[in-house]
Amino acid sequence: MQPKVVMKFCPDYLADVETSLREGLAEWGGMGTFVKPGQRVLLKVNLLMKKRPEDAVTTHPTVVEAVVRLVQEAGGLPIIGDSPGGPYTVGALQKIYTISGLREVAERTGAILNEDVGQTTIQYPEGKLVKSLTVTNCVLKADVVIPLSKLKTHGMMTFTGAVKILFGVIPGLLKAEYHLKMFKISDFADLLVDIAAWVNPALSIMDGIVGMEGDGPSAGRPRDIGALILSTDPFALDVVAADLIGLKSEKVPTLMAGRARGLTSRLDEVDLKGDARSLWRIQNFEIPTAVSTNFLDMMPLPRSVKNFVLNRVRPRPVFEHETCVGCKDCVNNCPPKAITMDENQRPVVNFEACIRCFCCHELCPHKAITLFKPWIGRKLMK
What we know:
Blueprint: E1 4-9, H1 17-25, E2 40-45, H2 61-73, E3 77-81, H3 90-99, H4 102-109, E4 112-113, E5 119-123, E6 132-136, H5 137-141, E7 144-154, E8 158-160, H6 174-181, H7 185-199, E9 204-213, E10 221-231, H8 234-244, H9 253-259, E11 271-274, H10 294-297, H11 303-313, E12 316-319, H12 329-332, E13 339-341, E14 347-349, H13 359-363, E15 369-372, H14 375-380
Parallel strand pairs: 1-11, 2-3, 2-7, 3-4, 7-9
Antiparallel strand pairs: 1-10, 5-6, 7-8, 9-10, 12-15, 13-14
């Protein structure tokens, strides 16, 4: 049976988001199909960094509140949580909850904001790339996990959605270790598929009312899309969301990694429900180009030559020193420690060590980093 994906047209956050979600959930019999009375329900939001709702970086509080109320109506206990980029501490979480508008949601609804920053290493022998995972305790303690993703582009992975958001079950700075070990896009995509398979969310909901285009997931531009997308299959949801913005599945590494395992990766494999597709007319959505370097692995070349080629075809971070305030977030969150501060307290990158994970770009609070895309890399991806 084909996985079902429901699209609901929701033009802005002033619309009745809760009613739209309720109508979408009716395809499965309502929230009560997924949540039973007394269950602890983790609403795994996207809390990448300290950003306001209007920046389109984090899951919008209006969507979170609507899901909270539906979970409560089904008798569940909603817990809002995520492990953002950077240190996974109670203080860091509290600041992000406040700035993202989720503290107000908790105050209005009685939902719990997760402040358990503990972590546990679990064995996962079924994993393709990893046989164990260190995950946040809040996901382990949940009876039901419902990820609330944001429709955004991603400098490294091209697209971030229902599958990529589950990387947030990896606690804080440990994410950097995974980036360092799986610096190839194909390997990192396999890691994300392993994590998604382990979490096995009961339901995935995407906030695509306002998404992000360009240099996402934090430095791009908000873009009106007007979509709420629901599915029990996060891969199927991502297929539909990618198609909505004109992105082919073949360009999304997580979908291609999933395809190799027989998971949903094509639009014709999806049972699409909900509002008419003609309601959305998304044109010229700016999508970053991820440069695949797998072709180099098949060439009998010295590693020094391969590195020389890589550094000329792959995008690289460029620091705008006039915008930079010297906060050192980039230095502290760089997996290979390729960034140092010069005598003027401005960042400098060792590109021989840089693995192009773009954590610096993703987590810069001042948008002081852009991604330079060499012309030869753009030619290779045409």
